[in-house]
Amino acid sequence: MKPRPKVKKVVLAYSGGLDTSVILKWLQTEYGCEVVTFTADLGQGEELEPARKKALMLGIKPENIFIEDVREEFVRDYVFPMFRANALYEGLYLLGTSIARPLIARKQIEIAEKVGADAVAHGATGKGNDQVRFELGYYALKPDVKVIAPWREWDLDSRTKLIAFAEAHQIPIAKDKRGEAPFSVDANLLHSSSEGKVLEDPALEAESIVYQRTISPEEAPDRASIIEIGFEKGDAVSIDGEKLSPATLLARLNTLGRENGIGRLDLVENRFVGMKSRGIYETPGGTILYAAHRGIESITLDRGAAHLKDELMPRYAELIYNGFWFSPEREMLQAAIDKSQEMVSGTVRLKLYKGNAAVVGRSSPHSLYAKTLVTFEEDGGAYDQKDAAGFIKLNALRLRTLAMRKRGKVD
What we know:
By secondary structure, the chain is of the alpha/beta class. It has 12 helices and 14 strands. The protein has a 5-stranded parallel beta sheet with strand order 3-2-1-4-5, sandwiched between helices. A 5-stranded antiparallel beta sheet has the order 10-9-8-13-14. Strands 6-7-12-11 form a 4-stranded antiparallel beta sheet, with no helix packed on it. Helix 9 (303-322) packs antiparallel against helix 10.
């Protein structure tokens, strides 16, 4: 085992929970360094002041405790740009955990620069994707930073050992944390994810206790909810005509999605580190937003641009999933995606009903939908159907040539 680097001051991504509280004390005892904590309000639905009190109790100076509400920034600068791309990892996952990591990493680096810290630390395990996402972000923004990943160093590899360490160092442990947690949860304003323990057998259906953000579709109301979402240049800006800030709008959609049982996903995915994992994801507002965005694009995007976007999307989604938000290739793709959104404005009407978000209407001042071209009635000469014969023959030329070769008749 190589010797640990000398660290003077470290910025820790700190939630105030058992794991990161143990990490805080472990950094103090094992590295003998000054610890600075950063706690982000990403809309996870938990009080953050207890994290401040716990950090103070563990000996952190008040000026070294940073707590920031980043909900608006999170949705405006990370979630919305991603949704312009209609990003889905492996065709299903709306990337709720993945998209939060670059923001946390950037905030940690900003604080490190501010307080003169030479290191950053996170609480991600050595088996997951988050370690990669955090650290790629750190190095992209501060290439000389030292990174401490306790789960890759220490021998506290069980809940029993964590609790024993906490007790030995007078770290308070909530009663509900003393037992073995049935699964782990990560949450933010976009989604919640549950993994591990009772969810590790992909053959077994997840129990109802796993779901944090939604009621089941079976329990949803028997009457549909009709809503209208307004868009400007690819971003949602209003619900039912009411202008809302990005975070407020997503929170409103979350409520609508929860009440209608929308946004549940049981997924076995391929982690970047090489293994498959099973997760239960709930993205109620994001699922509605995804459907609405594709709805407004359907009438405002040219076919070539729309199809190219769909071809680029899997690569874009994979970059975010794997932690390459700050990479030049993601920025290049983002520029192309954002260019495509210049005319993606208008309104989309959706019907929310028992787990489904269905587009039932869309309109835009920039619509490319022309009734005179598609009507089955008299079109006034807007489209000459005889032109289709030549179009088809030209497109069939290579197919006819191939068929003739099979018959040995190519001259």
